[in-house]
Amino acid sequence: MKLLNIKLFEGNNIETIPFKWGSINDSFISKDIALQLCLKFPANNFKHTIKNDSNKNYNMYNLQLVKNSEIISTNSEIIDDIWTNFAKELLSDSYRNTLEKYVGESLSNLKMDIIFWRYEKGCWLDAHLDKEEKLVTQIFYFNEHWEDNWGGHLLVLNSENLNDIAHKVSSKVNSSAIIYRDENSWHAVEEVSNLALESRKSLQVIFYKN
């Protein structure tokens, strides 16, 4: 069963200011599919990653599903089959070709990682540029309900200054964001507020040079 709305990029132009990025609604073929993924989003076996230094600061939880374009079998066994099916769809040529047309750059011969992320209260990701080997990232969001005052927005930045915000992207279900990496693609994830009644949940798809 197909889950992804492969036409999701049609009629959506990629933004070019302050860098190449996009925000897309209706990422799945139906709201019901998106809600199923919300309901079956993994709850256990996440690794806590935290870093505080002069280069990059963050605090969040992750569970990797695909590494080097291969599904990690030990992790696929602990999640619902709907996620394994979705991973296979993301690994398909159809998805890759569609995203390639959207960003206007070749994605051929690039490897893919797919990672689940959970941001609990107090979690954040500081302003940063992605590593040079990363080319394109798409982030799918899986919160059926998310209030703006809960924080957790993806921040598209004009510069490395965390307060120099060009756009805020909410983490509501059935939406996704795309970031094309260049020397100006500064972005961050706003700290999740203590007001949040649930975790901020997302799935990150990364295309990178091997």
Overview of this protein structure:
- Strands 1, 2, 3, 4, 5, 6, 7, 8, 9, 10, 11 and 12 form a 12-stranded antiparallel β-sheet that branches.
- By secondary structure, this protein is α+β, with helices and mostly antiparallel strands.
- Helices cover about 15% and strands about 35% of the residues.
- The model has no long low-confidence stretch (mean pLDDT about 95).
- The chain has 4 helices and 12 strands, in the order βαβββαααββββββββ.
- The protein has one domain (about 20-210): q2cbj1_9rhob like domain (Jelly Rolls).
- Strand 3 (about 60-65) and strand 4 (about 70) form a beta hairpin.
- The radius of gyration is 16 Å and the shape is globular.
Indicate the low-confidence ranges by residue numbers.
Answer: none
CATH superfamily: q2cbj1_9rhob like domain
* Share of helical residues: 10-25%
The level-1 CATH class: Mainly Beta
What count of helical segments does DSSP give? 4
Judged by helices, strands and strand pairing, the structural class is alpha+beta
CATH topology: Jelly Rolls
What is the terminal-to-terminal distance? 30 Å
Measured by DSSP, the beta-strand proportion falls in 25-35%
Categorize the overall geometry.
globular
What characterizes the major β-sheet?
12 strands, antiparallel
* Second rung of CATH, namely the architecture: Sandwich
Total strand count, please? Answer: 12
Radius of gyration over C-alpha positions, nearest whole angstrom: 16 Å
Indicate the mean pLDDT: 94
Total discrete domains: 1
Note the run of SSEs as H and E.
EHEEEHHHEEEEEEEE
